[in-house]
Backbone:
């Protein structure tokens, strides 16, 4: 049976993959197109095998392999040496590792070669012209076992249980990918691995078995499905579009996301089966069908040509990237056409002629085919001579890698110098620790005998409320506090206290609650106090808009006068214990008053300990 719409589905998948490769930022999930390709391919391959088995009672495995080889290999035989020759001309950095990668590409083992050599699909420091051929390799490896799987299942498993065989294998593959994926690590190993990434093809095989048996369904069931499935397929297509714009190379993709895409692809395929399905209008649109029909060649050529275009036109990688995209797409279409007309189609026609399918004009067609093959052979030989030359001149390292290694050597030299300085730094750290311990000890001794005879506190209502705790913690302290006091009033009060002989060495200013303050506000207070005083500025706390402004002003002043001013951080202390505030969120409760006094006492004690250990 010929299923229409398959080329259209592949065309959509190709658009997603190429878009992802050319502009990952704008379509981060375009790589799900690979899963669509796998599912469609598995469905079509298995359908062909099932039809042959049920018509003949056996599968001509050799013929199947030859047909698949003729479909996959000739385009590779042309593309691999061609892009190597272009790389030799445009930028030899692209030839790093070209010998091994070329051999892996031509033997359908790129995925395992990249896994073995540590290559990454998702991150690379140098252009890799053949990296995308992991997709072809994985497909070819599954193709090798597919006819055996179909034949053994048809022969050994009951009719109703046959679809469960590929379904079970697909589920195992999905589970393995999810289990072996490590968040934060490079996912290439699970993405390239045949065992962990064959589920898309297997889901397609599963669908082929289901479709092969759908003719036995009751007519009314088929009629209902014919009306319902196009709707479901439309929804599935929309869902895949949404996924392509949102999913990235993370756990969402490798722990079920890709499998969901394969399942959605199955729904799209099923939705195209009814002859009355409106999906044909989209999926059989001629440009989309052509994209799908020649998707293999376009896939092969677009990636290396994109890399080479960037090397050829480095100045256009920014705002002019559209030119590189355009040239890539045009060149990819052109090379796909040349490869198809000059190599792939002549070989396919020759193969058909060899099987006696040329009809009455077989001799003439065969002669033309031989001529084209002869010309193609000459071109291919020339390309492989070029490939040999490219391999001989390929650098062991890219210029980027060489530059990085050179810079790394310089960094290593600096690291050695840092090692030389490490002992001195360690000694400095040890002295700093000793000083810190000395200060803590000095502070502890100071706190044992500390009182308020050397402290004056000028404050607002928060200080008024905390006065009993201050007097208890610092006996003899001078407290001048008043409700609704503004910072602008403080310079005059400080001057009065100084005139009265009540302005002691440590002057605590706690007036940031009622108005905004600037660095200049505290400059005026310091000027009123005169020389020989240490300004201890309490930060304010509350939901008033000016309090953060006042605290900023206090911080600015202290940073400008570190030798004569210090912050007493009431805001941070009470912010960690808001349960110690009254209902207005500003004034402290009894416990908060004690905390307020502790902030004042510990700040001044820290200053005194610093002075004691300064020598």
Residues:
């Amino acid at each position: 049976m010929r299923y229409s719409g398959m080329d259209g589905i592949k065309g959509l998948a190709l658009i997603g993959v190429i878009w992802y490769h050319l502009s990952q930022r704008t379509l981060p999930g375009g790589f799900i197109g690979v899963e669509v390709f796998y599912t469609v391919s598995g469905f079509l391959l298995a359908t062909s095998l099932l039809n042959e088995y049920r018509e003949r009672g056996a599968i001509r495995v050799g013929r199947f392999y030859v047909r698949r080889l003729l479909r996959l290999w000739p385009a590779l035989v042309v593309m691999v040496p061609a892009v190597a020759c272009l790389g030799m001309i445009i930028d030899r950095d692209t030839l790093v590792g070209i010998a091994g990668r070329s051999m892996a590409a031509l033997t359908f083992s790129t995925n395992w070669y990249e896994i073995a050599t540590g290559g990454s699909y998702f991150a690379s420091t140098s252009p890799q012209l053949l990296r995308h051929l992991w997709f072809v390799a994985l497909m070819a490896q599954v193709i090798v076992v597919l006819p055996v799987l179909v034949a053994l299942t048809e022969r050994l498993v009951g009719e109703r249980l046959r679809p469960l065989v590929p379904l079970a294998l697909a589920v195992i593959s999905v589970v393995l990918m999810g289990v072996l994926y490590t968040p934060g690590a490079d996912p290439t190993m699970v993405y390239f691995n045949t065992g962990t990434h064959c589920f898309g093809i297997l889901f397609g095989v599963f669908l082929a078995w289901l479709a092969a048996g759908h003719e036995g369904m009751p007519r009314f069931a088929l009629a209902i499905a014919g009306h319902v499935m196009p709707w479901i397929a439309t929804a599935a297509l929309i869902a895949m579009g949404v996924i392509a714009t949102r999913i990235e190379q993370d756990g969402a993709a490798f722990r079920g996301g890709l499998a969901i895409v394969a399942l959605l692809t199955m729904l799209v395929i099923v939705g195209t089966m009814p002859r009355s399905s409106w999906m044909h209008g989209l999926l059989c649109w001629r440009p989309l069908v052509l994209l799908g029909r020649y998707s293999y060649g376009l896939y092969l050529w677009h990636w290396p040509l994109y890399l080479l275009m960037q090397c050829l036109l480095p100045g256009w990688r920014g705002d002019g990237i559209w030119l590189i995209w355009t040239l890539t797409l045009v060149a990819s279409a052109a090379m796909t056409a040349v490869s198809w007309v000059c190599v792939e189609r002549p070989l396919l026609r020759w193969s058909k002629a060899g099987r006696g399918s040329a009809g009455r004009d077989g001799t003439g067609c065969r002669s033309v085919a031989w001529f084209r093959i002869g010309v193609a052979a000459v071109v291919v030989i020339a390309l492989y001579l070029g490939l040999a030359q490219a391999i001989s001149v390929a650098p062991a390292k890219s210029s980027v890698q060489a530059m990085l290694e050179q810079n790394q050597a310089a960094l290593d030299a600096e690291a050695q110098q840092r090692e030389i300085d490490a002992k001195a730094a360690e000694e400095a750290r040890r002295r700093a620790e000793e000083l810190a311990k000395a200060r803590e000890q000095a502070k502890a001794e100071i706190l044992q005998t500390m009182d308020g005879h050397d402290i004056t506190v000028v404050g607002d209502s928060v200080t008024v409320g905390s006065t009993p705790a201050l007097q208890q913690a610092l006996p003899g302290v001078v407290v001048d506090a008043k409700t609704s006091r503004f910072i602008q009033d403080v310079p005059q009060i400080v001057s009065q206290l100084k005139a009265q002989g009540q302005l002691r060495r440590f002057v605590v200013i706690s007036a940031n609650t009622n108005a905004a303050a600037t660095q200049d506000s505290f400059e005026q207070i310091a000027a009123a106090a005169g020389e020989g005083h240490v300004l201890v500025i309490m930060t304010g706390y509350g939901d008033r808009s000016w309090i953060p402004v006042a605290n900023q002003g206090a911080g600015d002043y202290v940073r400008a006068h570190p030798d004569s001013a210090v912050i007493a951080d009431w805001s941070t202390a009470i912010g960690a214990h808001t349960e110690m505030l009254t209902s207005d969120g500003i004034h402290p409760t009894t416990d908060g008053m004690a905390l307020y006094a502790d902030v004042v006492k510990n700040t001044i004690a820290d200053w005194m300990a610093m002075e004691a250990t300064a020598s």
Remarks:
- Residues 357-361 have pLDDT under 50 and may be disordered.
- The CA atoms of residues 238 and 362 lie 47 Å apart.
- The chain has three domains: 6-311+323-396, 397-439, 450-612.
- The first strand starts at residue 455 and ends at 459.
